[in-house]
Design goal:
Layout (H helix, E strand, L loop, with lengths): L7 H6 L21 H22 L12 H23 L1 H12 L2 H23 L19 E3 L13 E2 L2 E3 L15 H37 L1 H16 L2 H9 L6 H12 L2 H15 L2 H8 L4 H12 L1 H24 L1 E3 L6 E3 L8 H8 L10 H28 L6
Antiparallel strand pairs: 1-3, 2-3, 4-5
Helix pairs in contact: 2-3, 3-6, 5-6, 5-15, 6-7, 6-9, 6-10, 6-13, 7-10, 8-9, 10-13, 11-12, 13-14, 13-15, 14-15
């Protein structure tokens, strides 16, 4: 089926993009719930049963144990990404291939994507591969990374060097490829688990922000009138709420789930800008010829938003989210780095979550003595990873839109 002839002149003036309209799906016969939605709901039901079995009934799961509420929220977030991002690309290999070809033509986007993919893989596998070091071994303290060396006077004893000693310097060894801390703990597990924490921050916060921002923005654009005004006022309020202050209100009395509270606060108070962006984009699209034609063929409002408006705002949404993620990751790291005296017992405590390992806490560990020497690598390596992750997400956000923007024919 082709668009009505009354729209042909407008269509000629505004070339179609490949997502604009599928005329086979423009009728009102589209299912209320897509396959991706059914997949997500089914998986969410399984996760809900597992969470209830462990945290409500108090039973342990057969393959995994001691999963925290944040772990379940992270699993639900990953499920949402698989259902609404990965699954559609798998079902449309031609579109995925088109994106991939254009992405490869942008070296900056390709390299940043490769870094992000590696970061995601390490973050997911880290809890399975390593656990947080707990023992103290001063005879293994201050061991340098492979390829580097440190003067033996900085070791516990001159003879405690694990690697080779030459000219009064201890050289790194593969036993501790990234060196050890001042208490003899291997640095590698701290970095891997820190990547997992950063991934949890990025995925969970994005999963909270994106559906809220998109839902509010689309509803405001399509409903208009008083609904639009109320929703945009709510978005403005969310942008003015100081998320850090809200988090500090809960931080004083919450010792166990600080990271969970941090993600909930930042995820649920940072959607306002995204909602305004989606609303503005959707307003520009709702009067386009292909949307009018979809309405004329009997498509419901839900189908118009889902099939025609939502696909066309994917690019600015991706760009916006990939630019916000670095800010959230560095905020978590900064909070973990800050240490204050508790007003209750006078103990020095971190603003972050002391029950998890993060790059911020590792940097703090490396500077606890008032500087970075002699174990400078304890602060420098996680610091470099944090900066690299921020740059990769920021660069991906700037280049991803250009790489996946559909090309139009004049």
């Amino acid at each position: 089926m082709t668009p009505p002839t009354t729209e042909q002149s407008d269509s000629a003036a505004q070339p179609e993009r490949f997502q604009d309209v599928d005329w086979e799906q423009a009728t009102g016969s589209e299912r209320w719930l897509s396959r991706s939605t059914w997949l997500f709901l089914a998986g969410l039901g399984v996760l809900a049963v597992g969470f209830s079995h462990e945290h409500v009934a108090g039973n342990s799961l057969p393959l995994v144990a001691n999963l925290e509420p944040l772990d379940w929220l992270f699993a639900a977030s990953v499920l949402a990404i698989l259902a609404f991002v990965v699954a559609p690309l798998v079902r449309e290999p031609a579109a995925a291939k088109r994106h991939w070809v254009r992405l490869r033509q942008s070296p900056a986007a390709f390299l940043s994507l490769a870094f992000v993919v590696a970061f995601v893989a390490v973050g997911i596998a880290a809890p399975v591969l390593v656990s947080e070091p707990t023992g103290i071994a001063f005879d293994r303290a201050s061991q340098p990374p492979v390829g580097l060396s440190v003067e033996t006077v900085h070791l516990f004893t001159p003879g405690s060097c694990v690697g080779d000693v030459a000219n009064g310097r201890c050289h790194g060894t593969l036993q501790y490829p990234l060196g050890t801390t001042s208490t003899g703990k291997d640095l590698l597990p701290f970095l891997l688990l820190g990547a997992h924490t950063a991934l949890v921050v990025a995925v969970v916060s994005a999963t909270l922000m994106v559906p809220t921002g998109i839902g509010v923005g689309l509803l405001a654009a399509y409903a208009g009138g008083r609904v639009d005004e109320v929703l945009m006022r709510a978005a403005g309020v969310s942008q003015t709420v100081p998320a850090l202050v809200v988090y500090l209100l809960f931080w004083w009395w919450n010792d166990e789930y600080r990271l969970l509270v941090l993600l909930l606060v930042f995820g649920l108070t940072n959607w306002g800008g995204l909602a305004r962006l989606v609303r503005n984009e959707a307003i520009q699209l709702r009067d386009r010829p292909f949307v009018k034609a979809a309405r004329a063929t009997g498509a419901s409002k839900l189908d118009v938003m889902r099939q025609h408006l939502l696909p066309n705002i994917a690019q600015p949404v991706l760009t916006n989210v990939t630019l916000q993620i670095p800010l959230l990751v560095v905020t978590e790291a900064a909070l973990s780095f800050i240490v204050l005296r508790s007003p209750f017992d006078g103990e020095m405590v971190t603003l972050g979550d002391p029950t998890v390992v993060s790059w911020g806490q590792t940097i703090s560990l490396g500077t606890a003595k008032g500087g970075v020497a002699p174990e400078w690598w304890v602060a420098a390596i996680p610091g470099a990873l944090l900066v690299g992750t921020m740059l990769a997400f920021a660069l991906l956000g700037r280049t991803l839109g250009e790489a996946v923007t559909p090309q139009t024919d004049n």
